[in-house]
Design brief:
With 438 residues, this protein is of the alpha/beta class. The strands form three sheets. Strands 2-4-3-7-8-9 form a six-stranded mixed β-sheet, sandwiched between helices. A four-stranded mixed β-sheet has the order 12-11-10-13, with helices on one face. Helix 8 links the parallel strand 8 and strand 9. Helix 1 runs antiparallel to helix 2, helix 2 packs antiparallel against helix 3 and helix 7 packs antiparallel against helix 13. The longest helix has 30 residues. The model has no long low-confidence stretch (mean pLDDT 89).
């Protein structure tokens, strides 16, 4: 009975709304609230790339499947999603604005361009001339310069240009090679985002034109690719196959246009036409479109202030005291030890691998890996074991969503060190965490 069930996608949006409500909870420390806004945003980005992307593909089928819970077609689900997302943007804007107002009391300030002092403007102008201007690539879009490919979730400045009686449009990609956050001189932690600063400087970039409108935008593309759906040669290395899949992902169809601030009707019509997007897939935000910078603010915040704005740091418990002159490997050979993560420290397991990589009695190590961080002691010890003559076999899951490239890179490091690397099974993702030391 459809009346008894919720549609899966709309239910997920309700879940993400509860994440956003954590950002509005006055009992949560301020910096943690800001991180919840960032988590909500990255969640929503992935939702559009995967869930909306999948529904978009299904909507193109000749006989699209009907959702057996709500009775909705893929197109009807998309319409319901787009309508449900609009109030979430407004809720996020309100949460972000109130958090920023309160953070200013702790001298952690996201400064708007209109609030910059003369000293700030002088500093930024010098920074622009020396570091930013040389790497910018502004482009006029006309008969001789076609509309460029807009990369998934990259930031751009779009402008309307006028010269004499001629009207045209221009685009400025925000270079990912530049620092996203520009910290201002003076007391406290004051910063402006690169795109908020650059949007005020576009007149200098198109000095042969009169800039009549400008906006910051980002395009979200369908990223729902199943590696098993793509054909590949029997002899082709699966890691190479995944690299091709990831490259293809960046070229898939747009599913969302985000606009920061306001936009004129001619510029909006131009963008939606070139991207082949209906108007209902354009969303307006007063909050920065990419909040990945939030985590890095802690590095610039004084420790005393950060403690006031954050939860107390969580320290996992040390599991057990090691007997004198005895290692973890020797101890667990005689008795079982149960560890519960993340409540207990990961260190004993890492020490176990480190000892195994050096112990002459160890013959082999077998391990499954789903995700790794950018720095991983685990890989260091596995490589050391292989270099010390151990038989090391690693099942590396290359299809960990949005960590594919990171896992591909680590797989290459492991192979170069002499490890045997496997890439899982057809139709399955290997998510288990298993390690066997012989």
């Amino acid at each position: 009975v459809p009346a008894l069930y919720r549609n899966r996608e709309l239910s997920w949006l309700k879940f993400n709304q509860r994440v956003l409500e954590e950002a509005q909870d006055e009992t949560v420390p301020l910096y943690e609230r800001l991180k919840f806004v960032s988590i909500f945003t990255s969640n929503l980005d992935e939702f559009f790339m995967i869930r909306v992307g999948s529904l978009y593909d299904l909507s193109l089928l000749k006989n699209p499947p009907i959702d057996n819970k709500s009775g909705l077609t893929p197109a009807a689900q998309l319409d319901a999603i787009f309508a449900a997302v609009i109030p979430l943007y407004k809720q996020r804007d309100s949460a972000y604005r109130h958090i920023q107002q309160q953070l200013a009391d702790y001298t952690l300030c996201h400064v708007a361009y209109r609030d910059l002092t003369r000293a700030d403007l002088k500093y930024l102008d010098a920074y622009f001339q020396s570091y930013i201007l040389p790497v910018l690539s502004p482009q006029v879009v006309d008969l001789h310069h076609p509309f460029p490919h807009l990369a998934n979730k990259a930031l751009y400045i779009a402008v309307t240009l006028q010269r004499a009686q001629m009207h045209t449009f221009g685009l400025v990609p925000i270079p990912s090679s530049l620092p996203r956050v520009l910290f201002l001189p003076g007391g406290g932690v004051r910063y402006i985002l690169l795109e908020d600063f650059l949007v005020e400087y576009v007149d200098l970039l198109f000095d042969m034109y009169n800039v009549t409108d400008r906006t910051i935008l980002s395009v979200t593309r369908n990223a729902d690719i199943n590696p098993n759906d793509a054909s590949y040669d029997f002899d082709e290395d699966y890691r190479h196959h995944m690299k091709k899949i990831l490259k293809k992902r960046s070229r898939l169809a747009p599913v969302r246009l985000e606009i920061q601030g306001s936009i004129s009707e001619p510029l909006l019509a131009f963008l939606t036409a070139r991207l082949s997007l209906p108007r209902q897939q354009g969303f307006y935000s007063k909050t920065p479109l990419d909040l990945s910078f939030v985590g890095s603010l802690a590095e610039h915040c004084p420790l005393a202030v950060l403690r006031q704005l954050s939860y107390p740091p969580f320290a996992p418990q040390q599991t057990f005291p090691l007997p004198p002159k005895q290692g973890v490997l020797q101890m667990v050979a005689h008795r079982d030890v149960l560890l519960a993560f993340p409540y207990q420290s990961m260190q004993p397991f890492l020490q176990l691998l480190r000892e195994a990589s050096q112990d002459p009695a160890v013959l082999s190590i077998r391990i499954t890996i789903y995700r790794l961080s950018n720095k991983a002691k685990l890989v260091e010890y596995l490589c050391a074991a292989a270099e010390n003559g151990k038989d090391v076999t690693v099942l590396m899951e290359l299809r960990a969503r949005f960590d594919e490239q990171n896992n591909i890179n680590w797989a290459g490091v492991l192979e170069d060190s002499g490890c045997t690397v496997l890439y899982g099974f057809e139709e399955y993702k290997v998510h288990s965490k298993i390690c066997l030391i012989t």
